[in-house]
Design goal:
heterodimer, A: alpha+beta, Ribulose 1,5 Bisphosphate Carboxylase/Oxygenase, four-stranded antiparallel sheet, two-stranded antiparallel sheet, B: alpha/beta, Rossmann fold, Helicase, Ruva Protein, domain 3, two-stranded parallel sheet, 16 helices, globular
Chain lengths: 138, 306
């Protein structure tokens, strides 16, 4: 099952050229671009692994792409996303986030039912990938 | 974003237009405001004929490339890595700083920035320290100009455990792979840079433009002095200008003469003497007095007594 998370995730995967253009836009807005990766695709997983620090002092997308490619090389079979952080007062948050790499086989999610008191049933989802320990998932 | 839109990089010139059979070079020339850039260069930089003619050649090449692309002829981005050689004070750093602006306006690079580094910024102190440091500097410079001053210090043949070689190798790789993203300019004294290239043939062969900065003539130096003085909102009295001319002629024959840098230092000292003179004199001063450097301020230099 194809993971849809962040921007552009219902579109075909972005090409390098398209990623460069998105990064150029983020940089033109004065946002700091960061690269993060994970092998736990749950939508509530906010703790992705940072690939270095957010790039506060890089002026051009070509410099960011060097890091993007380095991260891809090291994490071929993980989810990788590019983030753009807006430090302006009032935002101080992520303004852009999109996937740029995904594992070759995506396992999808299981619907888990937990029976509560009476006839109450609680639903949650769980990634099949997380059955295995981290590092052995994809 | 607006800066991106008004100066589209040359690589994004329309390629999808239907095949044209001719292209109006005059129109392209007018649109690219190259003439204005070259005029400005002529106005603001005194002398430096070989440098200016090289910039003119590069401008012509980029323009022709643009024309070729419009006709659907494939063009590779030309390699514009440069080395600037010359004696101290001949304007290597000044021109390098300006190069980013020029290449940006010619549409060759995307950003108008120069990242200026020396050995310290590229070479680490222990194993594994150099590569991240060099890459950091390169990433910052991407899209613009990386200016490496005194580049020969990167390579220290006398110490075989030096990490400079590692920095050079990373640099070479990026110079080759990111030719469209980055212009590298190496600067330094001629003989030492030549030794550097002969011991690193890969570096020498990847640099297409070796520009030699000639020493300034004495009339050019006087011109430079005039420009510097007016840039500081001072002016030389007639006697002072005459004294300056004599000063330059005398100073040129002395050891440790550093072209425009010596002139700058002389002017700094003249300002000091002028301030001292006005201070000693006291009383009411007008704007004219505050601006004028008198003959005595320059004649007091040690150069005249030696």
């Amino acid at each position: 099952m194809r993971l849809t998370q962040g921007q552009f995730s219902f579109l075909p995967d972005l090409t390098d050229e398209e990623i460069t253009k998105q990064i150029t836009y983020a940089l033109s807005q004065g946002w700091a671009v960061a690269v993060e990766s994970t092998d736990d695709p749950h939508p509530r997983n906010t703790y992705w692994d940072m690939w270095g620090q957010p790039m506060f002092d890089i002026a051009d997308a070509a410099g960011v792409m060097m890091e993007v490619n380095a991260c891809r090389k090291a994490n071929k079979n993980k989810y990788i996303k590019v983030l753009a952080f807006d430090s302006n007062r009032g935002f101080e948050t992520i303004r852009m986030s999109f996937l740029i790499n995904r594992p070759s086989a995506e396992d999808g999610f299981e619907l888990v039912r937990a029976e509560g008191p009476g006839r109450n049933v609680n639903y949650t989802i769980r990634s099949y990938a997380t059955e295995k320990p981290t590092g052995a998932r994809y | 974003m607006s800066s991106l839109l008004t100066h589209p990089p040359a690589t994004q010139a329309p390629e999808t237009q239907p095949a044209k059979t001719s292209v109006d070079l005059d129109e392209l020339y007018a649109a690219s405001n190259i003439g204005e850039i070259l005029d400005q260069l002529d106005r603001e930089l005194v002398g430096l004929v070989p440098v200016k003619s090289r910039i003119r050649e590069i401008a012509a090449l980029l323009l022709i490339d643009q024309a070729r692309r419009q006709l659907g002829l494939s063009t590779d981005a030309p390699s514009l890595h440069m080395s600037f050689t010359g004696n101290p004070g001949t304007g290597k750093t000044t021109v390098a700083r300006r190069m980013a602006g020029i290449l940006h306006r010619l549409g060759y690079i995307r950003r108008d920035h120069v990242v200026s580094v020396t050995r310290d910024d590229l070479v680490g102190q222990y194993i594994g320290h150099t590569a991240p440091k060099t890459k950091e500097a390169l990433k910052k410079a991407m899209g613009g100009v990386l200016f490496i001053d005194e580049a020969y210090y990167l390579y220290r043949p006398e110490n075989e455990r030096d990490y400079g070689q590692e920095a050079i190798e990373i640099l070479l790789q990026v110079m080759e792979d990111h030719r469209a993203d980055l212009v590298v300019i190496l600067a330094g004294y001629k003989d030492r840079l030549e030794t550097f290239f002969s011991s690193n043939p890969g570096m020498g062969s990847r640099i297409a433009h070796h520009v030699d900065f000639p020493d300034f003539r004495s009339d050019e130096l006087l011109n430079i002095a005039d420009t510097m003085v007016s840039g500081l909102h001072y002016r030389l009295s007639i006697g002072a200008r005459q004294a300056m001319q004599e000063y330059i002629d005398l100073r040129m024959d002395q050891p440790r003469f550093a072209n425009a840098r010596s002139i700058r230092n002389a002017l700094d000292r003249a300002r000091l003497r002028q301030a001292n003179r006005l201070f000693a004199q006291g009383g009411v001063l007008n704007a004219d007095m505050l601006q004028t450097i008198e003959e005595a301020d320059i004649r007091a230099s040690r150069v005249f007594t030696q």
